[in-house]
Predict the structure.
Amino acid sequence: MKKTNKIFKGLLLTLSSLIVAFLAISLPFKLIGDMSSEQMRGLFITEIAVYFITFIAYVVINEKKKAKLAKEKERRFQMRAKFEQAQREYYDLAA
């Protein structure tokens, strides 16, 4: 069941990326005849802004994930240190 889901998700992702790529490449050629140069310039600036915002969102999300992992790693390190100290104290008390 899981393998079928992975294959289906992979095919769906591949198909959607192919469609989006085709539209992204063909749309400017379609619009060249329909839009004035000012409208094309505005569309180009809007497209660049969307790409930039998407990139910034990706970077911010990645940085948050890295910070969360680092915080979790530090917490685990502190818990391990407390456990080892408690274990040493127990051994000293038992000796």
